[in-house]
């Protein structure tokens, strides 16, 4: 067990490790979490990685890393995994039953070079939240969270091969100057929680969303966005830019693509 407090030197965690209080890594320290480790939070405690420190949590397909509750199986059974820094790696991790699950937040300065790959986020209040950050999200499964994915405030996301589904609100909720590139992903059956906005992808204020990958001179999306409660793709403010090419966007009810403000245009080409 770890009783809580602040670490200022490197740590390696393995086995079944119980957090008996909130834990912070500061002072340019690194937390390495080995394959097969279960980090079990005994109550609503947090794990916080401050700016300058970092976490390397690399499991394998057969031995994932868990961030979970000791005995709770519902949302908010424990706190949040806060990461304020750059150069963090999450591979083959399962984050479940938390409050904000994993929050990548560049603070006090924007963060970069963060990788989230082959991870599962399930049954959290917010599955994956990213702010003031540059993050690669690759081959992840994000489902059964009240908010599946939230991006805010100058975040740049490259998302590939990820499935986002069965969320209570929007599959992806973007707000305020985000750049989001999506390729080869599935966003479906979101908005089942009956609260506020309930779309596949929601674009807020001054966002740029490319539902596709740009590889000059060709740009293809090959995403599937379907069966979300309200609209599949929703652009709210007029200063956002949404471009769509080579995607399947459908559910045969409501709007597949909805431009609330009407300006600027949504480019939707060669979609079905």
Task: Describe, in plain words, how this protein is organized in 3D.
This protein is mainly β. Helices cover 0% and strands 48% of the residues. It contains no helices and 34 strands. The protein is globular. The model has no long low-confidence stretch (mean pLDDT 94).
Attribute tags:
272 residues; mainly beta; eleven-stranded parallel sheet; 34 strands
In short:
The protein is mainly beta and 272 residues long. The protein has no helices and 34 strands.
Q: What is the distance, rounded to the nearest whole angstrom, between the alpha carbons of the first and last residues?
A: 53 Å
Helix content: under 10%
* Estimated share of beta-strand residues: over 45%
Which residues form runs of ≥5 with pLDDT under 50? none
Global structural class: mainly beta
**General form:** globular
Strand order of the largest sheet: 1-4-7-10-13-16-19-22-25-30-33
- Helical segment count: 0
Give me the count of strands: 34
- What is the mean predicted local confidence, pLDDT? 94
Task: Itemize the secondary structure elements and their pairings.
Blueprint: E1 5-7, E2 11-13, E3 16-19, E4 23-25, E5 30-33, E6 38-41, E7 47-49, E8 54-58, E9 65-69, E10 80-83, E11 89-91, E12 93-96, E13 101-105, E14 114-117, E15 120-122, E16 126-131, E17 134-138, E18 141-143, E19 147-152, E20 156-160, E21 163-165, E22 172-175, E23 179-183, E24 186-188, E25 201-203, E26 208-211, E27 213-215, E28 218-220, E29 224-226, E30 233-235, E31 241-245, E32 248-250, E33 257-259, E34 266-269
Parallel strand pairs: 1-4, 2-5, 3-6, 4-7, 5-8, 6-9, 7-10, 8-11, 9-12, 10-13, 11-14, 12-15, 13-16, 14-17, 15-18, 16-19, 17-20, 18-21, 19-22, 20-23, 21-24, 22-25, 23-26, 24-29, 25-30, 26-31, 29-32, 30-33, 31-34
Antiparallel strand pairs: 27-28
């Amino acid at each position: 067990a770890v009783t809580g407090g602040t670490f200022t030197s490197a740590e390696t965690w393995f086995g079944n490790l119980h957090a008996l209080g909130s834990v912070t890594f500061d002072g340019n320290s690194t937390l390495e979490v080995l394959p097969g480790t279960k980090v079990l939070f005994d109550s609503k405690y947090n794990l916080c990685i401050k700016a300058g420190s970092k976490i390397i949590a690399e499991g394998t397909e057969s031995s994932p890393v868990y961030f979970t509750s000791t005995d709770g199986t519902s949302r908010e059974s424990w706190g949040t995994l806060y990461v304020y820094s750059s150069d963090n790696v999450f591979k083959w991790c399962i984050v479940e039953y938390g409050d904000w699950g994993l929050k990548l937040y560049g603070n006090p300065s924007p963060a970069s070079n963060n990788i989230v790959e082959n991870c599962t986020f399930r049954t959290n209040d917010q599955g994956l939240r990213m702010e003031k950050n540059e993050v690669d999200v690759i081959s992840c499964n994000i489902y059964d969270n009240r908010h599946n994915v939230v991006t805010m405030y100058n975040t740049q996301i490259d998302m590939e091969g990820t499935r986002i589904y069965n969320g209570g609100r929007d599959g992806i909720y973007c707000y305020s100057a985000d750049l989001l590139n999506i390729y080869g992903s599935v966003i479906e059956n979101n908005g089942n929680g009956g609260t506020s906005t309930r779309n596949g992808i929601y674009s807020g204020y001054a966002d740029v969303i490319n539902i596709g990958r740009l590889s000059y001179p060709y740009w293809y999306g090959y995403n599937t966005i379907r069966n979300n409660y309200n609209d599949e793709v929703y652009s709210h403010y007029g200063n956002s830019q949404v471009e769509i090419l080579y995607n399947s966007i459908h559910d045969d009810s409501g709007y597949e693509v909805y431009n609330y403000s009407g300006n600027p245009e949504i480019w939707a080409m060669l979609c079905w």
